UniProtKB/TrEMBL annotation:
Residues 3-199 form the FAD/NAD(P)-binding domain. PANTHER family: NITRITE REDUCTASE [NAD(P)H], PYRIDINE NUCLEOTIDE-DISULFIDE OXIDOREDUCTASE DOMAIN-CONTAINING. Keywords: FAD, Flavoprotein. Its cofactor is FAD. SUPFAM superfamilies: FAD/NAD(P)-binding domain (SSF51905). GO terms for molecular function: oxidoreductase activity. It comes from marine metagenome. The keyword Metal-binding does not apply. This is FAD/NAD(P)-binding domain-containing protein. It holds the Pfam family Pyr_redox_2. InterPro entries: FAD-bd_OxRdtase, FAD/NAD-bd_sf, FAD/NAD-binding_dom. The keyword Flavoprotein applies.
Length: 202
């Protein structure tokens, strides 16, 4: 029996694990993620904040039980990888466990950049990636009057569109000259930028 270990429980990691099982049911597939949940897109979180999507449940492709019971994936949530031995073919986690593999697939996704500023650890400074943390934040948004979003990357742009829908005065701080300047030309972003400023008051 071939053993596959997938590190990362986002869309890529979950899709890889389920596709492997669907291709060959004899495979022993283990998926390891540091978070409590898998198979959701952080990019959908702002749409719940803005109430375009009514509940966080709408961001999940399937419940955890589907992947464990229906797909037969050895799912390890809230588990952090601390080492990989390629020659031995093993993954080591902080809880002392060892997961041998014939194939290792890394799907760890993106990591947010913590700004090199004072007081970034204050209670009002939040980072959007973990959906459980986003649920806690959502409960607090009804009492938020003003917000500053740092970086006009895709998730940041989604946030500055969502927050005004909750009657939150929203500001954007970014080093670029226009929205998503790393990914798109200014003329492409101009209509969106005008909408955010003129219609939503960002």
């Amino acid at each position: 029996m071939k053993r596959i270990v997938v590190i990362g429980g986002g869309g890529a990691g979950t899709g890889t694990a389920t596709n492997a099982i669907q291709f060959d049911r004899s495979l022993d597939v283990t998926l390891i993620t540091e978070f409590e949940d898998i198979a959701y897109s952080p990019c959908g979180i702002p749409y719940v904040f803005g109430r375009d999507i009514k509940k966080f449940d709408g961001l999940f492709l399937q419940p955890l039980e589907f992947y464990r019971e229906e797909m037969g994936i050895n799912l390890k949530t809230e588990t952090v990888v601390e080492g990989i031995d390629i020659e031995k073919g093993a993954v080591y986690t902080t809880d002392g466990e060892e997961y041998p593999f014939d194939k290792l697939i890394l799907c760890t996704g993106w990591e947010y950049e913590v700004p090199n500023l004072d007081n970034v650890d204050l209670d009002g400074v939040i980072f959007i990636k973990n959906i459980r943390r986003a649920m806690e934040i959502d409960d607090r948004l009804d009492n938020v009057k003003k917000a500053v979003v740092w970086q006009a990357k895709p998730l940041g742009v989604e946030l500055i569109e969502a927050l005004p829908k909750r009657d939150i005065e929203t500001h954007l701080v970014d080093s670029g000259s226009w929205l998503m300047s790393e990914f798109a030309d200014a003329d492409m972003m101009e209509p969106l930028q005008s909408h955010l400023v003129d219609d939503l008051g960002v």
